[in-house]
């Protein structure tokens, strides 16, 4: 009682804003529970699913590359969610400790991202394509006595990679703490679209361009059992 399901959420979603701004949006789905019928992926123009739920990275990328091959020169936003790097950590084989198996699963995803970059280069699209690679959470392998994810708010679960490749911008490492909530405003900014005032994140485009002005919003995090945290710049 008192909770809200995702399909009942009236909030403005990023895919819808992109569509209204003239950008075709495509959701490549390996975890079928993220489809729009449940509200999680609402607003995309297209949904493309893997053959089975919890689809493999290779199947997901096959479908993404096929979709790219038939696209024209109009603006396009594609979102791919890989689920290979999850317990029981067997997609890369059952040999070794859980952490070793987890790394092999990550290697499977890395290989598929390589296929994507190869196609972009082959079609001469890499000079007009922004690539964003991140994770929705980390994974615990005994740190703080924890395993898996959604069990705590320690760094091993919150500190995830974020890589952004932008044509024409030099490589740089940014130490400013950022959050996945910033990705919505960042993507809108990259397409030249405004961010609604209701969005909680801030665009990371200035950081990518070399402006190290600190971001002003706090960073929110939550896990199961109502474990919640807010991070502020002064360390609170």
Helix content: 25-40%
Q: How confident is the prediction overall: mean pLDDT?
A: 91
The total beta strand count reads 9
Task: Please tell me what the overall shape is.
Answer: globular
| Percent of sequence in beta strands | 15-25%
- Give a quick account of the main beta sheet: strands, pairing sense, barrel closure: 3 strands, parallel
Q: What is the straight-line distance between the termini?
A: 32 Å
**Sequence of strands across the biggest β-sheet:** 2-1-3
What's the Cα radius of gyration?
A: 18 Å
Classify the oligomer: single chain
Count of helix runs = 6
Poorly predicted runs are: none
Structural class: alpha/beta
Write the element-wise H/E pattern from the N-terminal end onward: HEEHEHEEEHEHHEE
Short recap of the structure:
Strand 5 (140-141) and strand 6 (147-148) form a beta hairpin. It is built from 6 helices and 9 strands; from the N terminus they run αββαβαβββαβααββ.
Main attributes of the structure:
alpha/beta; three-stranded parallel sheet; two-stranded antiparallel sheet; 236 residues; 16% strand
Describe the model.
- With 236 residues, the protein is of the alpha/beta class.
- It has 6 helices and 9 strands.
- The protein has helices spanning 14-20, 57-69, 98-122, 155-158, 183-190, 205-208; strands spanning 24-29, 46-49, 76-80, 131-134, 140-141, 147-148, 162-165, 219-223, 227-231.
- The strands form 4 sheets. The protein has a 3-stranded parallel sheet with strand order 2-1-3, with helices on both faces. A two-stranded antiparallel sheet has the order 4-7. The protein has a two-stranded antiparallel sheet with strand order 5-6.
- The mean pLDDT is 91.
């Amino acid at each position: 009682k008192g909770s809200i399901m995702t399909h009942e959420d009236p909030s403005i979603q990023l895919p819808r804003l992109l569509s209204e701004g003239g950008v075709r949006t495509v959701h490549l789905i390996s975890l079928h529970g993220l489809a729009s019928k449940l509200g999680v992926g609402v607003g995309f123009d297209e949904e493309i699913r893997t053959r089975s739920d919890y689809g493999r990275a290779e199947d997901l990328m096959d479908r993404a590359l096929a979709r790219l091959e038939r696209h024209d020169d109009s603006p396009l936003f594609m979102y791919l969610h890989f689920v290979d790097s999850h317990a029981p950590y067997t997609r890369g084989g059952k040999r070794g400790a859980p952490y070793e198996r987890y790394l092999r699963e990550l290697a499977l995803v890395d290989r598929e991202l390589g296929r994507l970059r190869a196609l972009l280069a082959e079609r001469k699209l890499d000079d007009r394509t922004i690539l964003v690679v991140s994770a929705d959470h980390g994974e615990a392998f005994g740190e703080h006595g924890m395993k898996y994810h959604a069990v705590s708010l320690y760094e091993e679960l919150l500190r995830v990679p974020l890589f952004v490749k932008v044509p024409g911008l030099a490589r740089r490492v940014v130490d400013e703490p950022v959050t996945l909530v910033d990705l919505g405003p960042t993507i809108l900014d990259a397409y030249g679209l405004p961010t609604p005032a209701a969005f909680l994140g801030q665009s990371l485009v200035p950081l990518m361009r070399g402006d190290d002005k600190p971001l002003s919003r706090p960073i929110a995090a939550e896990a199961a059992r109502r474990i919640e945290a807010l991070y502020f710049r002064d360390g609170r």
